[in-house]
Amino acid sequence: MTKTSHEADVAFIQALAELLREHDLTELQVKREYGEDDSLDVRVSRSQPAPVVAHAPAMQMPAYAPAPAAAAPGATVEVSVEDPAQHPGAVTSPMVGTAYLQPEPGSDPFVKVGETVTEGQTLLIVEAMKTMNHIPAPRAGTVKRILIEDSAPVEFGTPLMIIE
Prior knowledge:
Blueprint: H1 8-22, E1 27-35, E2 38-45, E3 90-92, E4 97-100, E5 116-117, E6 122-128, E7 131-136, E8 141-146, E9 152-154, E10 159-163
């Protein structure tokens, strides 16, 4: 907090709260510098987080789906598009942050596709507000897919991996 009282701070905080509401944000943090030893740190957040829509990584889809050559005239062709977030083995992000697949740059990843994991084993790290949060395996199984890249930004509910 500041060492001196600034009347404009109240209006500034009210404006931040309004931005939070208008843009349906859950949290906003700002540091305002006034001078060498004078600043204001403000964190505005909602007590009840707004619903968050998880976005799966973009997938390249063909413009059309050609029918198989052996299909009879009038037969329907079913094209299934798998949404990783709906997969029963999906491990999703519990928070907003940056996902890291290895404990430190240049080291081996926590897990690789095809590896067997045990319940509670660290799968990756999500950094949120300079805190490294280890994301454990919710169940034992085999890592079938890793859906994110190292150092990728993630949101709450973003599918990270598939474990079957």
